[in-house]
Specification:
about 725 residues, alpha/beta, eight-stranded mixed β-sheet, 28 helices
Length: about 725
């Protein structure tokens, strides 16, 4: 097999990746020893036979041969497969070829022990792993284990014969294997490396590849059409993740038993080897299959489908389903399994923010389309147990009940499936509280990590100034008040302590109150340098998500930059009960802020030229509340503030939430025209503008706070919240 073929194919694959948009990722490369490897992997798609060896080559430079279905060896495709060293499953010399390659470390090999594509992913663990396919229901095949063991045993026998000067026996071994003995074989051991191939998302539906095939082939057989549909979408849109597990040294594996058997006299070496093969082939197969399946990269679809089966049927609130998914993902993460980005906590909490969530919405629509769930109105769905359990043909199940396939893959991880089933049984009130606590704890941890990483003796305040906070509602409050949570958000270069008194005032009516900490704030000024306005927005959404699990209604109160973020948040949501915008800046009074983007471009150019002189990264100033606010202002952060102002201004017309706009007439920081612009642009039927004759910016503290708070209180009465 020519190395050129591998290089050319890897190059072709690279081009193919760009055209198709496929995202191949490889993990665990550090696990690969510099020794001959037999890769063993799960098998779900037809293209794995062609693609996976070259993905390995691309990332490691290792040349991997593999077996392919004998039915593929026709025409151009057959010539291509032969040119890159692939062997037909019906090649009479296949075992000898594999054995020689592994013994001599010529090439690595990849074998799929499941024996064929497991389209349904239906595998069960009993005394061993049992695969379910139309052609065969039975244990995972042991052939790969036998080949790896044979290569190690033959090599050990040859080394032993050479050391003991048994040249006749050595010659016999050379004849049997076709391998000429060389001294370097003493340094060679065969390794098995388990490989898990994970796909996300798996979606049926027409695609460009299927349509292209339909132009070439007038009548596509049903089985091929299904494969083009599923696998075409995987190639076009899915994350395809290869994970190399811990290598299994066959020498270490068999050495203890081999040493023991060698002590038994009058038994031929061949007989001893056969005994070892029989003793180890099932054990070895189960060991590496267990690692393959447990190395699954778990994604949102896994937990979604497992939750549907765990609930079992009937009607359920969509929000409850989301809570089950979120808490399950958090618990699974603590078990140190591999997670797909779709269930990273920083992404998953956003299923609660009443905005589109790409990953959840996608699997939810799939479940609806396949009639596994039916929306019943009022934020509820009915789960169809009958359709979940409906049997489909092996070659149709990926298309007709995709989530059943995904669930089968997850069910092999019994401990994780038990987590989901257990969470499905938690009463809703308790479940809400647990989810709230997880989100809030994560928020506190984010702050703690930032505070530790950016602490500065000259600038950092006490932790209590910068930490997000939550005030529990009154236990004796009315049912109406208990349903409402209030989110409060501080301003630019400030910290949650800035809105502490405002939060206490609102909490005094019995409302639950969550005080947000914007990313980069409340630690040290340099923490602001590389934070984006989108990260500030996410900080607000984390607080909103926490309250949505604690209350059925949320009111948002934002001061200054917090007000901009609150307005932007309302422009993207339909269910916010009310918003209070206080001194939110659409325009700033300091004309120097207009030059900030140009200064940042200048600084970036100097960075590229490795010139530190003439750079201007920050300015020092005197804040209104030095005990809370930063006294250093990074220009990159000012630029982000400008982008936020633009984003907010462009989306004001989308706001229909009841709104109170408060803008001080003599604000020394914000152009007072900002308040009027906000008030005029929003489309809320219930909107109010209050323009007090104040000459300070931070009107939620000091002598101006009482009048500000009274206006907010009146607004709450107008919303019928008090």
């Amino acid at each position: 097999m020519a190395s050129k073929a591998f290089k050319h194919t890897a190059l072709a694959l690279k081009v193919l990746e760009k055209i198709l948009g496929s995202k191949f990722t490889v993990e665990g490369i550090h696990n690969l020893p510099d020794q001959p490897i037999l890769f063993v992997s799960n098998h779900f798609t037809r293209f794995e036979t062609f693609v996976v060896p070259y993905i390995i080559y691309k990332h490691t430079g290792r040349q991997v041969r593999c077996l392919a279905d004998s039915g593929l060896y026709h025409g151009v495709l057959g010539k291509f497969l032969n040119s890159v060293g692939t062997i037909s499953t019906r090649n009479p010399n296949r075992d000898n070829i594999i054995l020689k390659d592994l013994m001599q470390a010529n090439y690595d090999w990849m074998i799929y022990p499941e024996g064929s594509m497991i389209k349904s992913k239906e595998t069960k663990k009993e005394s061993g792993f049992i695969n379910y396919t139309p052609s065969r229901v039975g244990p995972v095949r042991t052939g790969s284990a036998v080949m790896a063991l044979k290569s190690q045993l033959y090599r050990d026998d040859m080394n032993e014969a050479f050391v003991q000067n048994k040249m006749e026996e050595l010659a016999k071994l050379e004849a049997e294997t076709g391998v000429k003995y060389v001294g370097s074989l003493k340094k060679v051991n065969t390794y098995i490396v388990p490989v898990n191939i994970s796909y996300y998302p798996i979606r049926p539906g027409d695609n460009k590849i299927k349509k292209l095939a339909a132009r070439v082939i007038k009548k596509i057989p049903a089985q091929i059409a299904e494969e083009l549909e599923i696998e075409g979408n995987l190639l076009l849109d899915a994350d395809i993740n290869l994970h190399f597990g811990k290598p299994m040294n066959l020498s270490d594996y068999v050495r203890p038993v081999r040493s023991l058997i060698n002590q038994v006299p009058l038994i031929k070496s061949e007989t001893k080897d056969n005994f070892i093969l029989k003793y180890f082939k099932y054990r070895l197969t189960n060991d590496f299959m267990d690692q393959i399946y447990s190395d699954l990269q778990i994604n949102l679809d896994h937990i979604f489908s497992a939750a549907l089966y765990g609930i079992g049927g009937g009607e359920i609130e969509i929000d409850r389903l989301k809570r089950i998914i979120y808490l399950s993902a958090v618990k699974i993460d603590k078990r140190k399994y591999r997670l797909n980005h779709s269930i990273f906590e920083e992404n998953l909490f956003k299923i609660f923010i009443d905005e589109p969530h790409k990953e959840f919405d996608s699997v939810f629509e799939l479940a609806k389309k396949q009639n596994l769930i039916i929306e019943s109105g009022g934020g509820k769905i009915r789960i169809s147990k009958e359709n979940l359990d409906k049997k489909y043909d092996f070659h149709e199940i990926r298309r007709e009940n995709t989530l059943h396939v995904i669930a089968n893959e997850f069910f092999l991880l019994e401990d994780l499936n038990n987590i989901v089933k257990k969470i499905c049984k938690i009463p809703d009130r308790e479940l809400r509280q647990k989810v709230f606590e997880e989100i809030y704890e994560k928020d506190l941890n984010i702050f703690e990590n930032d505070y530790e990483n950016f602490f500065d003796e000259n600038f950092s305040k006490d932790k209590s100034v910068g930490s997000p906070f939550f005030f529990e509602g009154s236990k004796i409050a009315s049912a109406k008040i208990k349903k409402v949570g209030v989110l409060v958000c501080h301003g630019y270069k400030s910290a949650p302590r800035e809105v502490h008194e405002l939060a206490k005032f609102v909490n005094g009516f019995g409302f639950r109150v969550y005080g947000v900490r914007l990313k980069g704030h409340g630690t040290a000024p340099i923490n602001m340098k590389d934070v984006t306005w989108q990260e500030w927005y996410d900080s607000v959404q984390r607080g909103y998500a926490a309250l949505r699990n604690s209350c059925s209604k949320v009111v948002i109160i934002g001061f200054s930059t917090g007000g901009l973020l609150s307005l932007l948040s309302c422009s993207r949501k339909k269910d916010v009960a009310g918003i209070v915008s206080i001194n939110s800046a659409l325009k700033l009074l300091d004309i120097r802020t207009r030059f900030v983007p140009g200064i940042n471009i200048w600084n970036e150019m100097l960075d590229r030229l490795h010139i530190s002189k003439s750079k201007m990264e920050y300015v020092d100033d005197k804040p209104e509340n030095p005990q809370i606010n930063y006294s250093r202002n990074y220009l990159k952060a000012v630029e982000q503030l400008g982008k936020l102002m633009e984003e907010c201004a462009e989306n004001l017309e989308k706001i229909s939430t009841p709104t109170l706009v408060i803008q001080a007439k003599k604000d020394p920081v914000v152009n007072p025209e900002s308040g009027k612009i906000i008030f005029e642009k929003i489309k809320s039927e219930n909107k109010f503008l209050f323009e007090p004759d104040f000459s300070n910016h931070c009107i939620v503290n000091g002598v101006t706070k009482e009048e500000t708070f009274d206006v907010i209180k009146t607004f709450f009465y107008k919303l019928n919240l008090l």
